[in-house]
Amino acid sequence: MDKFLLGHLATQIGGSLRGNADLVISEIAPLNCATASQITFISNPKYRKQLKECQAGAIIVSQDDVEFCNENQNLIIVENPYVSYALLAQYMDSTPKAAHNISETAVISATAKLGNNISVGANAVIEDDVELGDDVVIGAGCFVGKKTKIGSGTQLWANVSVYHNVQIGQNCLIQSSAVIGSDGFGYANHKGKWIKIPQTGGVIIGNNVEIGACTCIDRGALDSTVIEDNVIIDNLCQIAHNVHIGTGTAIAGGAILAGSLKVGRYCLIGGASTINGHMEICDGVSITGMSMVVKPITEKGVYSSGIPAQPNKAWRKTASLTMNIDEMNKRLKQLEKKLVQK
Fold it and tell me: For the UDP-3-O-[3-hydroxymyristoyl] glucosamine N-acyltransferase non-repeat region domain, which residue ranges apply (predicted)?
C-alpha cells in the first residue's frame, strides 16, 4: 500500500492545509469509520454532526464546514470537497492496468500499427490494419476488428469486443464485456419474413469517454453512431444504431436509447429510462430514472414519468383507479355537460 504525506496531498488538490503536513496517509475512507492513517471528506451538510467525532487523520472540508470541526483535527480546506475527493482518488488510485506489456498469447496482425508503450493481454486479438495510439492498453480476451483506430491512453478491460471500422478517441475507458460496433437492429419485413439490412456505418467515439460493463453501442446503418467527448455511460446500457450523444452527457445503468435519437450536450439520463428513436433531446435536459420518453424534448429542464414504488395495497388501489380512468373521464364530461345545460 502506498503512503502519502498530507502536505503533498493538499498540494495535489489545491487545498489549504490546517494541521500536520508530515502526517502519513495510506488511503481514503468514509467519514464515519476513517482511522488515524486515513483521509476522508464531507460533501453533504447533513453529515456535519459527525465531524467532531471523526477519527480520520485528515478531513477534506469546505470553508463552511470548518466551524463544525475540532481545533486539533487536520483539515484540507477546498472550494468543492466532492470534486477534490475525486481528484484525490485519482491520484491515490492503485487499480492495476488491464494488461502489462504484450502477452505471448496475443494474436496481432502483421498489418496492425502499434504506438509506443502498448500493452495487450493474454488471448487478445488485434486484426488487420488496426491502429493503436501510444499507451493503449488492451485487456485479456479483447477483440479489435479490422481498420479500427484507438487513440492514445485508451484502456479496454478484459473481453471487450470492438468490431471493424470503429474509431475510439484518446483517454477513454471501456469496461469488461462492452460491445462496440455490433450490428444495429435493421430489418425489412417481406410477407412475414425478416430480411436483414447490413449495417455499413461505423461508430465514432470521442475523447475522455467512459463506457460501462456489458454496454452495447451499435454501428450505424449507413452513417455512424456518434458519442462525443466526455460522455459517461454506465453498465448494461443499449445505444442503438445512429444515435448521436452530445458532449458531457451522463447515462445511468440500464438505459435504452432507440435508433437515430439525438441527445444534446450535458444531459443526464436516469437509470432504466427508455427513449424513443428518430427524435431529438435538447441540451441540458435531466431525465429521472425509469422514465419513458416518447416525444422530442425542446426545452431544458427535468422530466419524469416513472411511477414510484408504493406498499402493495396502495399500489393495487392506484392501479385499479388507473384502469378505470377512461370511464371516470366519460362520467366527468357528462357532469360538465349537465352543468352547462343548467
Answer: 22-90
Query: Would you give the DSSP letter of residue 191?
Result: T
Mean pLDDT estimate for the chain = 97
Q: What pLDDT, on a 0 to 100 scale, did the predictor assign at position 338? A: 86
Task: Give Cβ neighbours of residue 228 (< 8 Å, ≥ 6 apart).
Answer: 206, 244, 245, 246, 247, 248, 249, 265
Q: CATH number for the 4-92 domain, one of 3.30.70.1230, 1.10.10.10, 3.40.50.2300, 3.40.1390.10?
A: 3.40.1390.10
Give the active site residue among 100, 164, 190, 241.
241
SS3 state of residue 90: helix
CA–CA gap between residue 188 and residue 169 (Å, rounded): 33
Q: How confident is the model over 154-208, as pLDDT tens digits? A: 999 999 999 999 999 999 999 999 999 999 999 999 999 999 999 999 999 999 9
In the numeric block, which cell numbers belong to residue 225?
453512431
Q: Is the dihedral of CA 73, 76, 78, 82 positive or negative?
A: negative
Q: What's the pTM value of the predicted model, to 2 decimals?
A: 0.92
The domain limits of the chain are 4-92, 107-303, 312-341
Q: Identify the band that residue 306 occupies on the pLDDT scale cut at 50, 70 and 90.
A: confident
**Residues β-bridged to residue 119:** 137
**How, if at all, do strands 166-168 and 149-150 pair?**
parallel
Is the per-residue pLDDT at 340 higher than 90?
A: no
Instruction: Give me the pLDDT at residue 310, please.
Output: 93
- CA-closest candidate to residue 83, choices 130, 176, 14: 14
Pairing of strands 232-233, 16-18: unpaired
> Please, what is the Cα angle at 269 between 264 and 273, to 5 degrees?
125
107-303 maps to CATH 3.40.50.720: no
